[in-house]
Amino acid sequence: MTETRDQKGPPEVLIDPIDISKLDPGFRKEIQSMPNAEDLSACFACSTCTAACPIANIWDIKPHQLIRMILLGMRERVISSKEIWLYLTCFECQERCPQKVRVTDIFFDCKNLAAEEGRIPDTIIALGRELIEKGQLYIVTADWEREDLNLEPEVPGLSTEYVKKKLSETRTGRLVKGGD
Amino acid sequence: MTKKKKKNDEDRIGVFICSCGTNIGGVINVRKLAREFKDYPGVVFTTSNMFTCSKDGQDTIAKQIKEHNLTGVVIGACTPKLHEQLFREILEENGLNPFRLAQANLREHDTWIHGDDPEGAYKVAYDLVVAAIERAKKLEDIGFEEYPVEKSVLVIGAGIAGIQSALDLADKDIKVHLVEKYTSIGGYMARLEKTFPTLDCSMCILSPKLSAIERHKNIELLSYSEVLEVERDFGNFRVHIKKHPRYVDIEKCINCGACERNCPATGYDEWNLGLEERKAIYKPFPQAVPGVFFLDRESCTHWTDGCIICSEKCPSKAISYDVEAEETEITVGAIIAATGFKEMDIEELPEYGGGRFDRVLTAGQYGRLLSLVGPTEGKILMPPKFEEPPKRIAYINCAGSRDENRRPWCCNFGCMYTLRHAEMTHRLYPDEVEQWIIYHELRAGGKEYEQFYRRVRESGVRFVRGFPSDMTEEKDGSISFSVFDQGTGSLLRLNFDLVVLTMAIDPSPGAAHLAHMLGVDRSEGGFMKELHPKLEPVNTKSKGVFIAGTCQSPKDIPASVADGKAAASAAASHVLKGKVRVQMDKAVVDESLCIGCGLCEKVCPFTAISMVVRDDEKERAEISSILCTGCGKCQVVCPTGAIMRKHFTTEQIEAEILGLISAHRRQEQAEKTSGGTST
User: Fold this and answer.
1) In this model, does residue A5 exceed pLDDT 70?
2) A121-163 pLDDT tens trace
3) C-alpha distance from B247 to closest chain A C-alpha (Å)
4) Which range marks the domain in which residue A80 is found?
5) Are the beta carbons of B178 and B162 closer than 8 angstroms?
6) In chain B, which residues have their Cβ closer than 8 Å to the Cβ of A12?
7) CATH fit for domain B245-324, picks 3.40.605.10, 3.30.70.20, 3.30.420.100, 3.90.228.20
8) Residue-wise burial string across B519-550, b where 16 or more C-beta atoms lie within 10 A, e elsewhere
9) CA distance B487 to chain A (A)
């Protein structure tokens, strides 16, 4: 505890604290209204999600910190974080949460929120473009891949046109075109 | 040794060595050890056993006492704290005085600590058993004394613990005197609006008990009264009680409130924990028991300015100023102390703005704001004017608690208390008030408490793990502080319209003096000390004195009620027998040797010794066997050897020590003679 003296205004500190005025009190409810996030508030900060995460070591903001940030309303830090795009979707965090918080699903919600605001990393946009242009993610690039398995060179009945068309009508299409 | 030694052929000692499974037998060879005493002087029987405390072991002792007509029993086993009573009973059942038992503690004093050195442990075991044999030869028969005990109990403090004790005792047809310092009973629970985790109305569940106290034929309620003095009278207590004057006649008062409405004087409102002022004549809350008004002499101006407004306005002429305090004396068989707690003074926390910032309240005060009969009629309004509701509230847990510089203990109910405040506030103002709980560890360890905690989290309360720093008061009166939130890993600077401190808990102010009068020890922080924290939680070292509720340690309502019931049960079994049986293994005075110097009286920690003038007009020591615990301090300081602590006489202790020394020398000797051959 610091010495007490009658001072007005915040004390001088070497690191800038996050001021309460920068927090978005509605953010928690915003996330909570999205799919599978009803139990968000049940989090009691045990950080099991981080302990369970196979890649948490490379995260700057750990999974449990993201959840706590949502609860306190640090909207900007959560939506702009690279971590919500990095996670593996392995569901370890969600499986192990003792309070049944659907951690992975909540990160999906965060991604959706970021996407709605058009804040998607270029690599993700590139993936979308690939999908829309080719209609599939994994393309057979060499003849021998199928020949070695005694298969005919072309995938029989493969039609990507429908996928391309439908996908370009979705938000993915709009994002790739730079709209939305 | 100049003292006369008993001849060996008179002693018939039986030695029983216990293996205690592998506890003792796993380290030393108990059969070999038992055989060592075959030809030991005075020993007529020796054996070893797997478990001496088992039925088998008990039967062996019983059989040998009869067969060999034993004069003493030596048991080499565990600590006497565990089975001494059992072994004594076996002796008694078989016609031997129970005090003819000498127990050698081979487990705690030897094999448990010397397990890495079996040879050394064996030698120690031999020494200990020899010492016990030598002691057993000197042991004497010790009897019992019985004193009558009144079938009545004094309960001090009428909070929920004391109330529960009183009701339980009264239902057993035991006369109860219930003393309460405050003008009405109910204690802290009566101040609460709702109770966690069920949020049921506190007064709704308490007031039936308050009425029951008032109506029960076996309970005499002494409100606004204090215990002045407690004296031991063999099995009973003589208690002096002071009844402060209320200046309002309980029989005549019709509860119209005319006196309070017209009273011009005000005083500190202890019922609302200083949130507002009250009139000099008042009734703390509508359901108060006794349900009449009372005049506080401290704040009344009658004695300074001669004001008589209230008595003039009283339609039933119930108010009279010339009433004196009454002193009464009662005799009871047992006493239950249930004196409760108080919040730590907020001014002890200046760094949290305590006593400096208007908008910093204690959790107790906040609880009064939530009360429908409190100063704001259940509305949350900001001090000091109580006009505007706050938009953002912070609750700071462990304020002063778990702090080595303040109160190192946990207040036990603070976490739940804060959660209750947050949930009640949420229900009152679901969207208007943002609530933050600043905590470090949240302890919700009661039945359905965890579920309640989850419900509060789901109500949208923000939880920040960390304690605040740099608390400042802004120009608009709001409070800002910094806190590092461990959850997000970020430093926050937060601002609140109202800050509520969940204060550390102290025992009631009078607890220290009362504990001293009752002969009860106190533990950390001044809470009254139980005889054993797990197994004797409501008993104290003072026989016939019991403790219940938060005077023992901070606890919540369910635990206080359980305590109250436990203390009632313990007190009932003490008084219902009608007599108390005292083992006479205590200090006794040899009057021919006592010179009346009074040293023993000074050192006795239990006030068991008093100097009494005898027939020859000389003062000599007298020991109350019911108070004496046999600690032996008086025996040590007595310059003439007049005081003897029976069962631990100087002769017995010397015999034991000499036994130890001789056994040790004998083993050294044996080692020297055999040492040459084995190396």
Assistant:
1) no
2) 998 888 888 889 888 877 777 778 788 888 887 788 888 889 8
3) 45
4) 21-116
5) yes
6) none
7) 3.30.70.20
8) bbebeeeebbbbbeeeeebbbbebbbbbbbbb
9) 6
**What mean pLDDT comes out for the span B307-332?**
94
Three-state DSSP string of B535-592: CECCECCCCCEEECHHHCCCCCHHHHHHHHHHHHHHHHHHHHCCEEEEECCCEEECCC
Residue A1 belongs to some domain of the structure: no
**Within-domain flag for A71:** yes
A11 to chain B: nearest residue by CA?
B470
CATH number at residue A46: 1.10.1060.10
- Best interface-test mutation with B: which of A41, A77, A78 has the largest number of B CBs within 10 A? A41
Topology of domain B145-244+325-340+520-579 in CATH is FAD/NAD(P)-binding domain (3.50.50)
What is the average pLDDT across B386-400? 96
CB-based contacts of B491-494 (< 8 A; 24+ apart in sequence)? B491/A13, B491/A15, B491/A16, B491/A17, B491/A18, B492/A17, B492/A18, B492/A19, B492/A20, B492/A72, B492/B464, B493/A10, B493/A17, B493/A18, B493/A19, B493/A20, B494/A20, B494/B394, B494/B436, B494/B464
- Residue A7 pLDDT exceeds 60: no
pTM of the predicted protein model: 0.82
Is this complex's ipTM strictly greater than 0.95? no
